[in-house]
Design brief:
This protein is an alpha+beta fold and about 170 residues long. Helix content is about 35%, strand content about 40%.
Amino acid sequence: MKNKLFMIGSIVAVGLIATAGYSASATYEKANLEAEDAVKIVEETYAGDIVDVDFDHDDGKPKYEVEYTKDNKRYEVDIDATDGKVIKNERDDHDRHESKGKDVQKANKKNDFITAQEAIDIALQKKSGFVKEVEFDHDDGRYEYEVEIQTKQGEYEIEIDAVTGEVLKVELDD
């Protein structure tokens, strides 16, 4: 009896995990736009410095949330991942982002940092897949991009030095 209950519980657990995996996979498949496309749309339309790119879905609709800075102000743009249309563009008044945005703008004016697009290209050379997130960050005394890529093997986090473009770490998240 205990073996039967254990087997039934195991089958249900595997089914739930498979369903969750399929659901996440189906969301990525609905996205016709890659992160690189979302970055390009924001750079061309708003001429800002990209700080963060996240893949998300609201009500089953895939979208990219792209944060950028311009004139010492931070903005967030939502882009429909199926057709590339801008859903919203609004100023982000969160104080916690202020210094990061100013650092990116200051460095980009001096051309000290690689762009978010260059970081994506470097990361995709290491692991091909679906770019879920790109974040500009100051970590361990250096500026870096953290790029998350979904592959068939799982989700990889790739850290790239924002000055040199050197790959610092490639890690499969558990």
